[in-house]
Design goal:
By secondary structure, the chain is of the alpha/beta class. It folds into two domains: 202 residues, nicotinate phosphoribosyltransferase (Alpha-Beta Barrel); 119 residues, Alpha-Beta Barrel (TIM Barrel), CATH 3.20.20.70. 38% of the residues lie in helices and 19% in strands. A hairpin with a 4-residue loop joins strand 14 and strand 15. Helix 5 crosses helix 6, helix 8 packs across helix 9 and helix 9 crosses helix 10.
């Protein structure tokens, strides 16, 4: 694993950047440039994505003699909109392009899938990030932070606690029940040992039928909820299982016992399982292994003059958004006071975060970033409702 020091020193870069810097320096050809980070397209035909990973980018360039502009972390963006701009001598930042893109490509994909799940479950079910175990453990804190920022209500790994200021969630694995050799003994041991603030959620599919174990747990423990984690290879129609468990619990007076579902949950599963009676989900690989967003860093200006490779619009740009979520890309020097589409107030999204290597903009805590994402998702919910997608 590369250390933070190695990453900042450019030890994880692509070798052609080292060769480029060597050539430029030997030929004394270094120039002041402006370079923008954009995604020309988004995965899976997404109309929008959530920008995540900026804090690591800012820390990466702290102390580097450049200026850095960016959209605030958590901003909902569209394809072809610049989310970051760097200004300075090219050799100052060339070798950091690789880690820069790595920080935001993966995190933004995770935050986006989390946000899409949140839109479906909004106000109906609690969502937890359960997927860090599917990825390299060194990045598990990043995975759960990105999922939390994107809208999931919590996460399972303790490594993300210091990044978010939130407590990890989760109760018991199948191994607890197997060690005790009996579901009820394991549930009771959990109830006796764990402090009151830990939710009583009994795992109810280890040895017997989900319905039978759920009724046993309700009778013996009266938990806040039961969790069904049956793998897809064994469970058949999960929607019907949830409906059956909900019916049997309700019939016996356990309407307050909630049903949580985990194990291979995907975005497309949420609505039908919520309709069936599920009120909470542990979402794993679907979020943690989200497709990366293919950001690229491209020079758009050299020595103050607009200049770019083919297929890229030259010149520095600004992205504007109004309260109705209408968006506009303009040249950097263009000033707007109202949205040309609806006449409402419009504001620029790109702001300066680093000046001459010094951080000049506040980096908000994860909870504030999540609140910012949720505010934007409210507008997207209304749009989806009008399209009949919710």
């Amino acid at each position: 694993m590369a250390s933070e020091e190695e990453i900042k020193a450019g030890k994880t870069t692509d070798i052609y950047f080292l060769r480029t810097v060597e050539i430029i320096k030997k030929k004394r050809a270094d120039k002041i440039v402006s370079a923008e980070v954009t995604a020309q397209s988004l995965p899976d035909n997404w109309e929008w994505a959530v920008f995540s990973g900026l804090e690591e980018v800012v820390r990466l360039f702290e102390g580097v003699n450049i200026d850095l502009y960016a959209m605030p972390e958590g901003t909902v963006f569209r394809e072809k909109e610049p989310v970051i701009r760097i200004e300075g001598f090219y050799t100052e930042f060339a070798v950091l392009e690789t880690p820069l893109l790595g920080f935001i490509c993966q995190a933004s994909g995770i935050s986006t899938r989390a946000a899409r799940c949140k839109l479906i479950a909004w106000g109906k079910a609690k969502l937890l990030s359960f997927g860090a175990r599917r990825m390299h453990p060194a990045i598990s804190p990043m995975i759960d932070r990105a999922a939390y920022i994107g809208g999931l209500d919590g996460f399972s790994t303790i490594g993300a606690e210091k990044l978010t200021g939130e407590r990890a969630s989760g109760t018991m694995p199948h191994s607890l029940i197997l060690i005790f050799g009996d579901q009820v003994k394991a549930w009771k041991a959990f109830d006796e040992v764990m402090p009151e603030e830990v939710p009583r959620i009994c795992l109810c599919d280890t040895l017997w039928d989900e319905k039978i174990e759920s009724l046993m747990a309700a009778k013996e423990i009266r938990p806040q909820g039961v969790r069904l984690d049956t793998p897809s290879s064994r469970r058949g129609d999960m929607r019907e299982i949830v409906k059956e468990v909900r019916w049997e619990l309700d019939l016996r007076g356990y309407k307050d016992v909630k049903i949580f579902v985990s194990g291979g949950i995907k975005e497309k599963d949420l609505k039908e399982l919520i309709d069936a009676g599920a009120e909470g989900f542990g979402i794993g690989t679907w979020v943690s292994n989200a497709p990366s967003i293919d950001f690229a860093l491209d020079i758009v200006e050299v020595e103050g003059k607009a200049f770019s490779k083919r297929g890229k619009a030259s010149g520095k740009k600004q992205v504007w958004v109004c309260e109705n979520q209408h968006r506009l890309i303009t040249s950097w020097n263009e000033e707007l006071r109202e949205c040309p589409r609806c006449g409402s107030e419009i504001k620029p999204l790109l702001r300066k975060y680093i000046e001459g290597g010094e951080i000049v903009e506040e980096l908000p805590p994860a909870r504030k970033i999540r609140e910012y994402v949720l505010e934007q998702l409210k507008s997207l919910r209304e749009t989806n409702r009008q399209k009949g997608l919710l």
